[in-house]
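for the record, two folds in this file. i put them one after another cuz i was lazy. first one right below, seq on top, structure tokens after. the second one comes after a little note so u can tell where it starts
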Amino acid sequence: ERSPGIPFIIVSGTLGEETAIDSLQAGATDYVLKHRLTRLAPAARRALDEAEERLKRSRAEEALQNEQQFLRAILDSVEAGIVACDARGILTLFNRAARQMHSLSEEPVPPDQWPKKYDLYQPDGRTLLRMEEVPLYRALQGERVRNAEMIIIPKNGPPRTIVSSGQPIADAQGRNLGAVVAFQDITERKLLESQLRQAQKMEAIGRLAGGVAHDFNNLLNVILGYSEMVLGEIGPDDPHRPRIEQVRKAGERAASLTRQLLAFSRKQVIQPRVLDLGALVAEMEKMLRRLIGEDIELLIRAQPGVLRIKADPGQIEQIALNLVVNARDAMPQGGRLTIETAGVDLDERFARDHPGARPGSYVMLAVGDTGCGMTPEIQARMFEPFFTTKEPGKGTGMGLATVYGIVKQGDGYISVDSEPERGTTFRIYLPPTLEATEAAQPRDASASPRGTETILVVEDDLSVRNVVRDCLRIYGYTVLETGDPEEGLRICREHQGTIDLLMTDVVLPKMSGRALATRVSSLRAGMRVLFMSGYTDDALGQHGVLARDVAFLQKPFHLTVMARKVREVLDQNRPVAS
């Protein structure tokens, strides 16, 4: 027992056959009777040889076991799953990653049962793989499989997308010994790729929408401007008045739609100020209760005086209104609508799941409902402009698209949790600010918009220029006009009288409106400037955010609004923005 490797020979003069057998079974190598001692030397030699052979075999088995353990450790340390089978298709090897992903068992499973046994599906996640489509089986048939994608559904987890590569195993003589495949879980990568494609698609749609909205705004400016002029010139009993009013109303609806397109495309010009988000939501409570009706319970958890952001108040109200309307429409039979504001910290995981997001502290606005929820297919398209699940005539499909654009323009992020029949929660994350809140400046509504000053209008769209010129003349102003910024500079140099205001489009041929204003300031110090545009190209401020000293008029505008803005700028004692 202490030294089992040492040979042991029994030498006896009276050893019986039964005792000899018991001795051999107990571990003796041999036995020699004393009257036959000539057998002792050969027996000893044979015993030593056998002991040496046993030692070699023991060492070989130990080395083989160590090698197998080492190979097993290598296989188990690999993140990719590895599975091998013999020539009959019986699984003979799988590493830890494969066991974890596939819930593999040690029992032999024939190839025709692999898809059902291991829940192997087509990339659509609904169609079970056929045996001949399974990568390991394809490799067993001699095929070299590369990047075969499929879905597996583990027993204890959600579906996973995996990609497999495999090949047959053969010996030196080319005989088929089986097959091996390696596969990786690419679920997270597929999710990120999908999110990136969605972001790129939204960016492309946004560029298209911004360009279309810009062109429409110029057209709408003419329609709204001249319809206002005509309505101001005809009497209340004129038979044409109802028709002209319908033209104006249609123009206003179209203008509202283009504003939403600009918001989606992040081309809307905004004038942000420091806001208390909790106070803003609390102020909207009465209006929101009227909006949703009595059959929906409204729950507001807002903290006034705590959460400050720098944003355009009209845009934040637009976000809240659009999300509340969306929630209301998702609960036609009533339900509960919750609005919450809070300070939150977004971590690295959130940033990974939302391409472009940065970890850090944010102010959150959450709007949740207990309505019908959304399928994954609807969620994939919910922010696209004009996409709607409502009946024709019940919605434009711009509500969520507008929210998306406003949030992106404000360097924020959106997350959505939704399941059919379980409700939906939108969470908006906006950067906080440490600046103090600002009070909104009251407008002097009593001031007359008329005047006698001289105004230089630089607008390359002839129709828009004409309507602006005609309106300004109606209000008493002297108008100099051109569609060429170089011509505008020439007028500034050569005009004999004063020019009190430069009214210029932002986007002009040859030079921007901002560059024109800068050059004008060197020719006529103190001349005021009013910019106008249908969208922003960052000429007035980064991402459409206006500096505090910039006067701006968003196209399309009502002529009365333009006249008041012109009067406001002329009455302010400030130099040209440069």
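(here's the note) second protein begins now
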Amino acid sequence: MEKQSRKRPATEPHETAEHQSDATTRDQNEKATVAEARSTLDDTIEQLRRGPLSRFQSQRHGDRIIISFYPSDPEHPNNWSRKMKLLLAVAGCLSVINSTLGSSFPSGTIDQISQHFRVTNEPQLVLPISCYLMGYVIGPILFGPLSEYLGRKSVMVGAFTGYILFTMACAVAPTWAAFLVFRLICGTVASAPVAIVGGLFADIYADPKPRGLGMAWFTCATSCGPVLSPVISGFIGQSTSWRWVFGTGTFIALIPFPLLVLAPESYLPVILSRKAAELRKETGNQNIIAATDLEKQSLKYILTVIMTRPYRMLFQETIVACVCLYSTLLYAIYYLYFEVYPIIFQGPDSVYGFSPGITGLAFLPIAAGSVFTGTIFIAWDNYCQRATAKGQTWVKCEEYRRLPIACIGGPLYSIAMFWLGWSAKPDINYMAPIMSGFLFGLGYFLTFTALLNYVSDAYLTFAASAQGMASTCRSIGGALLPLASNKMYKTLGNSWACSLLGLLNLAVATIPFVFIKYGDKIRASSKFCVELRRLQDEEAERHERGRIGNREDEEV
């Protein structure tokens, strides 16, 4: 036993040395294999850069190759021709006009609709508009995030097809219940352009000036649609039937549809993802991807991350929450006017006793005020452009560039309400309250556009989700507040009911002033703004690495 115990120590070091030698050999072999694989991957990347990837910037991420456009690439949406951008802008704005036009179609022909379906309950007469706006509550939180996952075009074309079909369905509705259901579905799919077009302008315009003008036309489209609708429905309903009002709406909706089909996809992450798929098919290399392909694309990811983004922005982002509050009241009052004007102008029980068609004409000053604000935005943008040329730093701040317009628009909106309420008297000419609409449209449009521009500038990539949430919130207000219109105006009277709305608006009109003072600090602590800056830094780094890498390949 002693001999055996003495021999064992002599053999153990020898065995240990053998094990260590084997382990070292394995490590060396593994390192050699990894080095060989890396060398092979480097050779593959170099070959691809000289071939199919020569048009793209490329960066290695593990065993993956991430592609992106050069900043000057003509396929980048920022670099598209003016004609292509104009096509997208016109298609987007026309689809928004159709969407908002459909919202107030019943306002000029509600008497005919109620007689046809034998509806006598007054609160129910508001439902055709309220059901449509309730669809605006559902749609934006669905279509906004989906457009950031599937792309703008596919979501827009699919939803707008639904809008055309269900507008036609409203024209042939057999019962009151079916009519309301069709209005709800119609409003849901019609909300897609309202939720997406703001993001579309952020896609194609890198420069804040054209992006701001695009958003101004977008807001003008959202404002003019509901105002023009009572004119159309009032006269068509009088001369034919309420069903032809919706038939006409179907024909009008067919106008922008070919443009939407012909327009290209504008959302950069989706474009790059599709380009990467084409390259994988062309080269047979399955490691070529876009940056967005690194994200998890499971159903759980879609439901818990993409679809919840608007809600998270509402509860986590001070800017989004305040813009939602302000725009909700703006929008609710705007749609309340479609119930207020008939109370003041239409029928034997009103102040002036107009017919439905003439009452529709009373909305035209609101449209005129909305259109006139375009000149104000052009003048303001030119002023900002001159400030940029002079090197003034204030113009680089989103708050100073966008919100002064809202600081003017908010008080004007309230003044218009006071004007309408206290001038709508039998002994005062009807033109006095009607002309208040010009100031009403001016104030609404200035404030609404400034807020949307501010959100687009602050969140860029996430703009569709932020605006989708804002659209949902304001649609809730637009659907609910008109339900109280008859009771409120009968209880308070025209003067004090309008004054109450004006005072409520003055309270929230302080929000742009607060943002101007504290907005930069709010954005600095914003989770989404921090994430956006990180994504922008990564994109800039990829551009720089790709530029250096491709330049080295050219030198070789």
